[in-house]
Design brief:
homodimer, 394 residues, alpha/beta, Creatine Amidinohydrolase, Chain A, domain 1, Creatine Amidinohydrolase, six-stranded mixed beta sheet, three-stranded mixed beta sheet, 10 helices, 18 strands, 34% helix
Chain lengths: 394, 394
């Protein structure tokens, strides 16, 4: 078995935890509509659309309910006992009616049933009844955060996948930096780096590599170029790099559906003294965050420590966001390294650490690294150089 | 004003339609949480995350409520009267409380208020109260489909953007076909074609081109290579092309947030007689669909006509999905060319037309073209060759 996937056993362990929760809650079964939860519990990575998908988890059986077009795909790749399909959405009979029929067939239509949402949801033109409308006899309990709670603590196998992702994100970032020369456009640099890193990744890993939801490695700027780098969530605008630009980057790779996050502040040519000053302060902020994170403290404590540095150095005009977020199957996950998040940090949690400074007109300054919390403290999974001299392009 | 964007006036017209709906419904204002609706009504394209975003639309004022990190970005690019922010999510005060405070300040906390959803929603670790919990005095009416209804009929300017998208999707597809040679991997072909098409696009269109949510042109296979082409929604698996493979492709480009859809069935070398037979039947299915679509008939009639061909030719074992779907800002939108969709086809609707045949072991056969419905019938916006001889690679 390659290290680049999760074993069937891992999915069984996850489902056992859900089944234990069913028992605690006195529920006969759980219905999951969320596509990330379905992938987490069955290994079935698919493209969510307006067509409803659901996983019915009973203590002795896992069943997928899918549109006809996913049948062979699910039978080939999902760790489940049964795949049932409906013809199409909207179709002649609404798929939620078909789901109710299947639950009836399973003897679940009048029992105590858990669900992760009131019904299927999709912004792609879907509409339909809630579960309680098609199952009027059932006693429904919404447990929207059950899987998200499990996902917050990564297993050693999940951490290996995130670590593998960070290796190829690193390569993509090396190439991105190499191609970041004045006169080149955002897309040219980003797509060339992403393509070459992906090809190296595919050739290196061979058939053992399955992205499961993405397609290889990628690095880019997301529009954070020059003055636009001061917008923490800019979007791509095809800007051309100019001498003196501050760049804020992002790189990663998808490995069996898992992600990592690597972001760096770079300079096209030598930075101005003012830019170098903010870069130095940003690195101090990140160092402080990294030194604070450890198991047993609440997430809020990390943000509070970093906020004290903003206080002490009069940096509030340049503050835009909290210290970081969990990640794994999704790029952003709970919990958050935020003053309002009292979740206790535990071994196995994976966080981005990325306090930033954003100076209108001058540029944005943010590094982001991915770490896993251990019994002893933290292990950094990203390892790209963080010092100024290493981050000058051209 | 370039043709590659929408004028401020277009956003005003859209908002006037919402304001007319407020009037009809006797509502003082509407709150929109959906990121596509916010972009549709304000021009603000942004990255939705766990941080709530909302648009408050009153007859005389459009206000965005955003996380602090989006302030400058929104002030620069959104057509609104006001941008208000909250510090962060989860933060010390839940952002939904801040939204309630803003609505209170606007005198809307105890009036009749519309909303597109019960509250903000995000799979990225968000949780929070519903609008009715933070605004107990308000009389709330959910109108989840208001904007989706408007989006279904595209303006001439929107059709121009989708047409521009299809030109660059065409180029990406030409390159994809050129690079589809035996021995090459999916990612290599796809990323090279996408990068070169994007660079041509950026260089041709210059600064007038703003993707607004994507990054240029792209073409690929999404895993539909060889036997996997028989899975209508396969996912990328880095397969290597082999002689005799059937390929199902996809190409498009993002232009000011609008998309087009171009898909083709191609062959690595000459197809077998069996493959050529199914290819021919698929083209007949698509011809039949294209000949049926016209304004004034229900969407279901198109699917019914195509289903009659499956009947007449014993093709049901190879059926997997309906004829097509609307598209525009999203890749899939309502209405659907589906036997269960009774929406009347109107001029300005933009559809994909893509009936398919999927033969396990042999391959998948699907072309998808994008068309706009006109007073007289249809205009095809995609124009890549559809005949077998033009679609043989290598």
């Amino acid at each position: 078995m390659s290290d680049l996937c999760l074993a069937k056993e891992e999915y069984r362990v996850r489902r056992d935890r859900i089944i234990a929760a069913l028992d605690r809650e006195g529920l006969a079964a759980m219905v999951f509509f969320n596509s990330t939860s379905i992938a987490y519990l069955t290994g079935f990575a698919f493209i969510p659309t307006e067509r409803p998908a659901a996983l019915i988890l009973e203590p002795a059986r896992a069943s997928l309910y899918l549109p006809r077009l996913e049948l062979e795909h699910a039978e080939e790749t999902a760790y489940v006992d049964l795949v049932r399909t409906y013809p199409e959405y909207p179709g002649e009979v609404h798929p939620m009616r078909g789901l109710a029929g299947l639950l009836q067939e399973f003897g679940l239509a009048s029992g105590r049933l858990g669900a992760d949402a009131a019904g299927y949801g999709s912004g792609m033109g879907y509409e339909g009844p809630r579960l309680e409308e098609v199952l009027p006899q059932a006693s429904l309990k919404l447990l929207p955060k059950l899987v998200e709670g499990l996902r917050a603590i990564k297993s050693p196998a999940e951490v290996r996948l995130i670590g593998e992702s960070s290796r190829w994100g690193n390569l993509a970032h090396v190439l991105l930096q190499e191609y970041s020369l004045p006169g080149r456009t955002e897309n040219e640099i980003s797509q060339r780096a992403s393509m070459e890193a992906t090809m190296a990744m595919v050739r290196t890993l061979g058939a053992s590599y399955e992205p499961r939801g993405g397609h290889g490695a990628a690095a880019g700027f997301r529009g954070q170029i020059g003055p636009n780098s001061a917008l923490p969530h800019a979007i791509t605008r095809n800007l051309r790099l100019r001498p003196g630009d501050v760049l804020v980057t992002g790189a990663g790779a998808t490995v069996w559906g898992y992600h990592s996050e690597l972001e760096r502040t770079m300079f096209v040519g030598r930075p101005s003294p003012e830019q170098a000053k903010f870069f130095g302060l940003m690195v101090e902020l990140q160092d402080l965050a990294l030194a604070t994170i450890r198991p047993g403290i609440p997430c809020s404590e990390v943000d509070r420590a970093v906020r004290a540095f903003y206080d002490a150095n009069d940096l509030w005009p340049y503050w835009r966001h909290h210290v970081g977020h969990a990640l794994g199957m999704l790029g952003h996950e709970a919990p958050f390294l935020d003053i309002g998040d009292q979740t206790i940090i535990e071994p196995g949690m994976v966080f981005s650490v990325e306090p930033g400074l954003y100076v209108p007109g001058l540029g944005g300054f943010r590094h982001s690294d991915t770490l896993v919390v251990t019994q002893a403290g933290i292990d950094l999974l990203t390892y790209y150089p963080r010092d100024l001299e290493s981050l000058i392009c051209g």
